Amino acid sequence: MTEKVQLSSTPVLHTTLRWGAIIGGVVIVLAGATGWIVAESAGMWSGVIGASVGVLFPAFTAISIVIANRWYGTPTYLTTFFAIVLGFWLLKFLIVLVLLLSLQSVSWIVPIVFFFSLVGAAIASLVVDLVVLQRMRLPAVSDITLPAVNPEEEQEQNP
After folding, report:
1. DSSP conformational letter for 74
2. Which residues contact 54 (CB under 8 A, 6 or more apart)?
3. pLDDT tens digit sequence for 107-143
4. Is 35 in contact with 47 (CB distance < 8 Å)?
5. 50-88: buried (b, 16+ CB within 10 Å) or exposed (e) per residue?
6. Whole-number Å distance between alpha carbons of 15 and 127
């Protein structure tokens, strides 16, 4: 039985998801409160929905990478990794299209509140990603095991 190896990117992605959820919750509350001030109940729900879309969809990418990293070390890792990440990306794309097209016909959505809460949440998600990536401590080459013996020295000793 092979030992499961955790990639160095997995803790970084977990940190990104954790902080993204915390900041996302704050943005959703702020967007809802701002929406309430602008247009009462309809504005509040427009802000909450817009901020939720802006928070959840960037998280899908990190979630897909964490799921795909479970196959690290298997012979089909690269194929599985790209299939999972691409599958999530296509699913995310379809969900965004369906969601935005269906919300377009909803009469109580306040478009300006929805738009600015979506943009605010997207910017907050980007800031979280940048801060986490800036603070991570990873070597330039990670997730590799160096040989215990230099192969060149081994050849010199055994001509």
Report:
1. S
2. 27, 117, 118, 119, 120, 121, 122, 124, 125
3. 899 999 999 999 999 999 999 988 888 887 766 666 6
4. yes
5. bbbbbbbbbbbbbebbbebbbbbeeeeeeebbeebbeeb
6. 13
